[in-house]
Amino acid sequence: MRSYSLIAPAKINLYLEILGDHLSGEIPQPDGFHEMVMVLQSVSLTDQIDLRASGTDAIRVHCTHPQVPNDASNLAYKAAALMVKRFPDCFARYGGVEITIHKQIPVGAGLAGGSSNAAAVLVGLDLLWELGLTRDELQELGAVLGSDVPFCIAGGTALATGRGEQLDVLPALPNLYVVLAKYRSLSVSTAWAYTTYRQTFGDSYVRRSDDLEERRQHVHASPMLTAIAQRDGTKIGQRLRNDLEKVVLPEHPQVLQLREAFQQAKPLGTMMSGSGPTVFALAESQTHAEQIQAQVKGAIANSDLEFWIAKFNPSGIQIVE
Ligand SMILES: C[C@@](CO)(OP(=O)(O)O)[C@H](O)COP(=O)(O)OP(=O)(O)OC[C@H]1O[C@@H](n2ccc(N)nc2=O)[C@H](O)[C@@H]1O
Ligand SMILES: Nc1ncnc2c1ncn2[C@@H]1O[C@H](COP(=O)(O)OP(=O)(O)O)[C@@H](O)[C@H]1O
């Protein structure tokens, strides 16, 4: 087959704790990233990525979304460039690729849209070039592109540690719904969120590698993971956490107001996703989700505010049959 279409889901963070500096190297040193404990969840808000062998020697990206670049800075392009570098024989045999991104996931939203697009290109080129890479191999390639890319390949529900690229699969949570809301004109840079967090809270970071190891060992017994193991939506909702709220909400009062409006609407729980500014609320049914959405829309009448209702998605990148 000379073309593939893939579905690339967004993610939300049910839990995001920043432990301190991420340490790497033979004698572990801070590398500019953060050591995380996260629970990541794919949701049914998705982009579609079409890949086509172009018969030229170029990588081309097409996306009509005004905030998405069509050049080498696009994460989907970077994914294809990485595959070309790692598998030059395939590139010589199969030639270049046209990547068309049908964007529905809001951009710069804390929903990993770009990471998921990159993940789809890795999965799609593996198919197009008949490489037969394993999921682990694809995730290792993904980690070169960004901390969230390995998760986007597998999707579902996962515990992420390290920079976010060390993954443990968690039990699926099939019956939960999520209402998402974002101000169209507001985006938050992930780099800004982490840098500001470091400037504000860096003094309290865990820095020693043996202290980090001790923290990691406690992760599996955390209340959020217990709630997930029990598939208890009420407890999951009560145990949501996102440390990046501490820098994004004071900077953007309208996001704080949105989060408060969600809280008033009696969801299972509400939280900002990742580096924001998307706020989500968990619901136990489609009806519950619709009630929450209606109440928040009533509380904040602003045409800049966009809403989505999605379900928890059990998987990551899917091939369109
Ligand atoms: C915050 C999260 C939560 O899931 O997602 P988003 O809100 O971006 O979707 C992730 O940690 C974002 O992952 P991703 O978007 O892949 O980040 P990367 O490209 O690896 O890094 C972007 C920037 O964030 C910083 N960064 C990222 C991950 C990490 N563990 N520590 C960091 O300090 C990096 O220093 C870099 O400047
Ligand atoms: N394929 C892509 N889809 C979305 N954004 C992209 C893509 N490639 C590059 N970008 C750029 O990456 C930045 C982050 O976008 P995105 O991945 O949507 O947000 P987040 O990191 O908050 O989840 C934006 O500035 C955007 O212009």
UniProtKB/TrEMBL annotation:
* Chain's gene name: ispE
The record's active-site residues are 11, 148
Instruction: Give GO terms for biological process.
Output: isopentenyl diphosphate biosynthetic process, methylerythritol 4-phosphate pathway; terpenoid biosynthetic process
PANTHER family recorded for this chain?
A: 4-DIPHOSPHOCYTIDYL-2-C-METHYL-D-ERYTHRITOL KINASE, CHLOROPLASTIC
Record's family?
Belongs to the GHMP kinase family. IspE subfamily.
Q: Does the keyword ATP-binding apply?
A: yes
Which reaction(s) are listed as its catalytic activity? 4-CDP-2-C-methyl-D-erythritol + ATP = 4-CDP-2-C-methyl-D-erythritol 2-phosphate + ADP + H(+)
- List the SUPFAM superfamilies: GHMP Kinase, C-terminal domain, Ribosomal protein S5 domain 2-like
Q: Which NCBIfam families match?
A: ispE
Q: Where is the GHMP kinase C-terminal domain?
A: 224-297
What is the source species?
Stenomitos frigidus ULC18
Q: What is this protein called?
A: 4-diphosphocytidyl-2-C-methyl-D-erythritol kinase
Q: What is the lineage of its organism?
A: Bacteria, Bacillati, Cyanobacteriota, Cyanophyceae, Leptolyngbyales
